[in-house]
Amino acid sequence: MEPKNILTVNGGSSSIKFALFAVGEALQRIFKGSIERIGLPDAVFKVKGAEAAEDFSRPVVVSDHMMAVDLLMDWIEDRIGRSAVTAVGHRVVHGGAKYCEPQIITEAMVADLKQLAPFAPEHLPQELLLAEAFRKRFPDLTQVACFDTSFHHTLPRVAQLLPIPRKYEAQGVRRYGFHGLSYAFLVRELARVAGTEAGMGRVIFAHLGNGASLAAVHYGQSFDTSMCFTPTAGVPMSTRSGDLDPGLACYLAREEGMDPAGFNEMVNSRSGLLGMSETSSDMRDLLEREKNDVRAAEAVAVFCYQVKKWIGSFSAALGGLDTLVFSAGIGENSPQVRQRICTGLGFLGIEIDEERNLANAAVISAENSRVFVRIIRTNEEWMIASLVSEKLGLALGVETTYKEGAT
Ligand code: ADP
User: Fold this and answer.
1) β-pairing, 103-104 with 142-147?
2) Is 170 contained in some domain?
């Protein structure tokens, strides 16, 4: 039988990340890579293969996403050949109210998603462009859209509805939530490592990377989440502000003549850790500098304080808490940040074990902690491949449960 491989594609505003998975006894990653800094003079194409000899990182000239995806498709054809790719799975930032599960990309769907472009103008058009480029080059290749909003389609009305005039809801303005592929992976992974009962319990997932959000989950379903109509909402992030007083937009328009585009650029690209520290959007840099630079110290402090507040708020929404899970770059790797977030949450039953926390262990709560506190490494690419293989029935009869070290 022909081997079946799934290519995952994750298009960002200035990057394309990709990975190839073989569908076998488990989903086995063959390579992963990225084209980064698209449109800038120092754009780079990186690949990490199954063996170190296959790894490379080289400068490339890609002035836009079209050139970048052409380069990627050339490389894929060279590396494994078109016929070796069974399907492509795309991460799509927004599925609106209609798309709550992975779907094969059709012309009708692309037309629907184009209507949603105003909801995610920085991401959705680029993502559609990637799917379109694959369709033009390989017309018979099945492509599947996996939506970052899907996981949150279970949000109850009180979490969805925004307290503004109702007519906007009819236009689709409500809480959608994002990072859904990560949360879907983490829910499965929690059940795998901690058992079904823990997986069905009251859980807060804290996905803390460059983009950061939290999700309150019960019975494996999204109950509330910190991102809202756009991914700018919720906790402060590397360059995004998170929640702000709505009156600020009006103040800046009045006092500085700031227009909508200027405000959008400020809250998405010049705020958060970067805005507060005035030096870096990267948590590692700020932790290094915080002793000598009060701006770095305050940026870290505000981040930890806000995440702590969302944990408190979601514990109330869930009526208690059984498990807290840290994930993504900061959540998986920073003992200091986790410690600071959890300090003072003893009243919720959260106690951290210092040594386990320092070791980035799988369980970092102390023996006497009523709430289990865990670190789970997220894997959005694996989740896309898994959803595609389920959708297309490629996984029939084979094990697609995540296996540690398999990817
Ligand atoms: P993205 O959302 O772009 O996928 P990541 O999940 O890789 O981002 O997270 C990037 C963030 O994780 C950066 O702020 C980086 O500084 C932080 N990070 C990675 N490793 C560490 C570490 N050891 N200590 C503190 N922060 C870390």
Assistant:
1) antiparallel
2) no
